[in-house]
Amino acid sequence: MKLYALSGDPAKPCYVLSYKGLMIMLDCGLSISSVLNFLPLPLVQSPKFQCLPNWNCRDSEIQLEDGEIKECCGCAFVNSAPEFVPPLEKLIDFSEIDVILISNYTNMLALPYITEGTGFCGEVYATEPTLQIGRFFLEELVEYIEASPKESTARMWKEIQHQLPMPLNDVFKPKNWRHLFSMDAVNKSLARVRMTGYDQKLDIFGALQVTPISSGFCLGSSNWTIVSGQEKISYISGSSTLTTHPRPINQTALKYSDVVIMTGLTQAPHVNPDAMLGELCMNVMMTLRNGGSVLIPCYPSGVVYDLFECLSVSLDNQGFTQIPMFFISPVADSSLAYSNILAEWLSTSKQNKVYIPDEPFPHASLVKNAKLKHFKHIDSEGFSTEFRQPCVVFCGHPSLRFGDAVHFVELWGSNPLHTIIFTEPDFPHMQALAPYQPLAIKTVYCPIETSLNFQQANKLIKELKPGVLVIPENYTQPPAIAPQKLDLVIDPIPDKMIIKFKRGEVIKLPLKRKRGRVYLNPKMAKTICPQEVQPGVTVSTVTGVLQVKDNIHDLLPLEPTKEELADEHKSKPAGPPQPYSQLRTVRYEWGTLDINLLLKKLAQDGFTDLKVEQGSADEVTLLLPSEDTVIKVSEKSTDIVCGGKQSLRLKLRDLLLQCVQSF
């Protein structure tokens, strides 16, 4: 078994598991942090960004396109359409992927890069909320980029990266970055997804059985178990033991796995999400008391549902019942409507509201009472009429590089009465604000991340008792945001192996197949006559044909040839027919192959150009150049590679069988 690491960001994982001849992709996360190196895309031309000075290379021989690189407060930005970091392509051919397992909607944004234009013809599995909310994320992202197209594309800067100022001279392999896909590619890729439910066992070509298990992180999020015979692998990505709106994590199904691959831990391990939620509400109330408004850059689903609920209660308690909240997103109406019809994917307390009946989320009543107003864009019909200040605005994108958030930062950035609160930990907030500087608006960083922290992850690992733990290398050292906190790591497990990996590596996992399941044909079962060899132990020889089809092993009765039936009829014309196993002499081969005897028999049969290569201690390779054939002999297997010559392969097989012991 091998693991290919196609992503360097544990929060946006993409790995490929090679097992039993199958290539299984685990998630297809898209790293969006690269967009921070680009100038924002305003909805209308911005005098501020147009007036930023150009950066020019000191080397007169290097000529960049006019305005390709802009400078702002000591930082350089690319003046072009933003580019993204897709999963690593050179490590594996995407057309060879057999199946993609998606754990949650935040880890599927690279799907169009993988399935479209690559020859991919495998299966994609995800839960219904993962598919639908993932569609919201992708549609919003594409609409944001297409709403503000750039006239030209900057390319030359990647050729002189080492000469550029900070932070561009420090970015990782920008030549691998790609522009965003089209809406057509999004629709085609999502059409490939097959929806599944929690605990539904899915057969993968007869070789494996995969099952999505509730992970407790977000609506429809799942961990996956991969079972083959006696072996079990668990993939844990984006899990939570906190009590929020999704269905709780199912730990029982993950216990006693041979291998556990764990990723998607919190990006803000140094803070408590409940404390951050309280701090957010406090800062919102302070800003409103001073007559200012609040901007909260957000995604169209997820934590924003909890923010609506908590913030509406705080506004009522503090006497701000008339303060409006605005939710602005191209998919705002779809997201709000869809979240209230997902009862089976919610926590028990949310499910119980459905049977009262009542909406599981309060934002439905907030919309009815005009406390929460939602619009597709700031130029949507009715927005200018409804908009009034002070207010609280939720809109995208959290990177502040595109979307309606760009307009509000420019609108409110020079006023110290207003506040911008960052809740998404995907982007360092100071880097997000860098191209807008200087700013007077108050900035608050309240990352609300509900996925497992290191303390919770270590506790979960102890309870699951895995045979081998596989984790990103980042989890073995304190995070960059808190390098002094040595407890923010995955602890060693006594008497257990921990394997770490990083982007671009191929890791061999110590999982060996112990047993395989073979289905015995009923006719053969009737002929078995067990013999007791010692008290409580009976054995029997079995002779048949092992048929392997779609990774299912069937042991079938031997069928006689026409010639053998004719010979039997001539020698014994009368009497009832006998089982075929009694009609012919059956040889049972066993033991190790006698190499010297094989070489002698090959020479006697006319293979005179034979070459012998000694590999490792128990491996020998025999080359037959004239026949374009290779025979590889090891302690546990013998392989004949002869370019499709079936008659030659059978001839060599018969010679091989003469060189082992038999009875």
Compact description:
This protein is of the alpha/beta class and 663 residues long.
Descriptive account of the structure:
The strands form nine sheets. A seven-stranded mixed beta sheet has the order 10-8-7-3-2-1-24. A seven-stranded mixed beta sheet has the order 11-12-13-14-15-22-23, with no helix packed on it. Strands 18-17-19-16-20-21 form a six-stranded parallel beta sheet, sandwiched between helices. It is built from 17 helices and 35 strands. Helices cover 24% and strands 22% of the residues. Residues 578-583 have low confidence and may be disordered. Helix 12 links the parallel strand 20 (419-422) and strand 21 (442-445).
What is the CATH T-level topology of the largest domain? Metallo-beta-lactamase, Chain A
Number of domains: 4
What is the helix content?
10-25%
- With helices defined by DSSP (H or I, 4 residues minimum), what is the helix count? 17
Widest beta sheet: strand line-up: 10-8-7-3-2-1-24
Q: Could you name the ranges where pLDDT drops below 50 across 5 or more consecutive residues? A: 578-583
Sheet-strand content, in percent, reads: 15-25%
Shape: elongated
CATH architecture of the largest domain: 4-Layer Sandwich
Number of strands: 35
How far the N terminus sits from the C terminus, by CA atoms, comes to 35 Å
Pfam family, one: Lactamase_B_6
Protein name: Beta-Casp domain-containing protein
Subcellular location: Cytoplasm; Nucleus
Keywords: Cytoplasm, Nucleus
